[in-house]
Specification:
alpha+beta, four-stranded antiparallel β-sheet, 10 helices, elongated
């Protein structure tokens, strides 16, 4: 009954509603770059930065506006002025009585206004700052890609380990089942006790539980890979390559500041430095041109008289209550803060690299020990199985030996997995990217 229940549970979990699908590591990374949601957020950040750059064009391009205004008044000054604008003033309009007490008059004004920036020094610096920001967010996206690629490599390595562990556990199940059959036969012949059979069944149940746990973890890792790849339809993925010791591809294990994350920080600092210069140059004079073209008439749709006006404005905001100077101080503090944060970030990454290098050495030692332990455990198990078949060993001893052999196999696989994870992390930390 226990065996049948386990078999049913195992099949239900392994062959679930999700289809089994072979997966190549390179294909997973390709899917991630094309569909991952976090990268889409980074794309929007780049678009926002480009829209900010387009907005700075307002400091160079003209501003045009058109308006149509209707007024009615009997105010002496405005009434006479409207007649002048409409070009309808006559000799009779200079009559003092009419000047002091004019009749009401309509004036409809159509106006075209033009403003053209000529020289605004702070706008140039603002534009430089946004360009550096675009470079920064572009580097951030590229770094996000590298981070997600590392996550995929780690998840893929865990998946390889789980499938190898699954094979080892399934082999252990078969071995326990064989031991159970032998023990049951010994019991029938009077060479074993009922407690011996129960001990074997307990050991078999423990190994079966490990198998269920592994299958569940395979499903969890597959879900995580689906999310990383931006896939809505989930599947149980099968790695196309088996777990094996991964050699370092990067010969130099030195930390490099030519990484996308650090380059992004540097560009962000340059952008903030440009903001400091922008605030400083806002203290300089501004030179702008302007112009107007007006049409005046007493009729709403009339355009009887026209006039124009053009000029150049030189303005200088000499003192604004220290507002600009406070902005300069604040922006400079932000630059200093960003530089310190970058330095702290670099120091932490160097520590992480040192830790990863030590982990790599430790994991290599674990592999060596695990290989020896596995070999010894299998040899010991083989001897005990031969003696047990002859009735020369206790059931408890053979069970302990089987559990030890299975444990050593899984420990070797885990040591290889941890070694590979260390190499992935070291390659990531020591990568050097071209600053183009």
């Amino acid at each position: 009954m226990t065996k049948q229940f386990f078999t049913l549970s195992f099949l239900l979990m392994t062959f679930s509603a999700f289809a089994q699908q072979p997966l190549q590591l390179s294909e997973a990374i390709k899917e991630m770059k094309a569909n991952n949601s976090e990268l889409k957020i980074q794309d929007n950040e780049i678009k926002l930065a480009n829209s900010e750059l387009n907005a700075t064009q307002s400091g160079f391009l003209p501003k045009l506006s058109v308006s149509h205004t209707g007024l009615y008044t009997n105010d002496p000054l405005n009434a006479f002025g409207f007649k002048l604008q409409q070009s309808v003033v006559s000799q009779a309009d200079f009559n003092p009585t009419l000047l002091n007490n004019p009749d009401g008059i309509f004036n409809f004004n159509t106006k075209l206004s033009v403003q053209q920036p000529i020289l605004n020094f702070d706008v140039f610096e603002a534009r430089k700052a946004v360009k550096e920001k675009i470079k920064a967010v572009t580097y951030q996206k590229q770094f996000a890609q590298e981070q997600l690629a590392v996550e995929i490599k780690k998840a893929y390595t865990n998946l390889q380990f789980l499938y190898e562990a699954k094979k080892a556990v399934q082999g252990g199940i078969l071995a326990y089942q064989e031991t159970l059959r032998n023990t049951e036969n010994f019991e029938k012949q009077g060479f074993a006790k009922p407690t011996d059979v129960l001990m074997v069944k307990v050991g078999l149940s423990e190994v079966q539980n490990k198998a269920i746990e592994i299958v569940n973890n395979i499903a969890n890792v597959s879900d995580y890979l689906s999310w990383l790849m931006g896939k809505e339809v989930q599947a149980i993925y099968i790695p196309t390559t088996e777990l094996s010791k991964k050699e370092l591809q990067n010969i130099s294990l030195n930390f490099s500041e030519e990484r996308f994350d650090i380059l992004a920080m540097k560009k962000g600092i340059e952008a903030q430095s440009n903001m400091v210069m922008m605030n400083k140059k806002s203290l300089l004079p501004r030179l702008n041109a302007f112009g107007e073209y007006n049409l005046h008439d007493k009729k709403i749709a009339g355009f009887g008289a026209n006039s124009y006006l053009a000029g150049v404005s030189l303005s200088w905001n000499i003192f604004s209550g220290n507002e600009t100077r406070n902005k300069i101080t604040k922006s400079q503090i932000n630059v200093n803060k960003a530089e310190t944060e970058m330095q702290v970030y670099i120091e932490k990454n160097k520590l992480e690299l040192q830790k990863s290098n030590r982990d790599l050495t430790a994991n290599q030692a674990k592999i060596n020990l695990a290989e020896t332990a596995k070999k010894q455990a299998l040899e010991s198990l083989k001897i005990l199985e031969n003696r047990y078949a002859q009735g020369l060993e206790k059931t408890a001893d053979i069970l302990i030996s089987k559990a030890s052999a299975l444990e050593k196999q899984v420990q070797l696989l885990e040591a290889i997995k941890e070694y590979n994870l260390s190499t992935i992390q070291i390659e990531f930390l020591t990568q050097q990217y071209t600053n183009d």
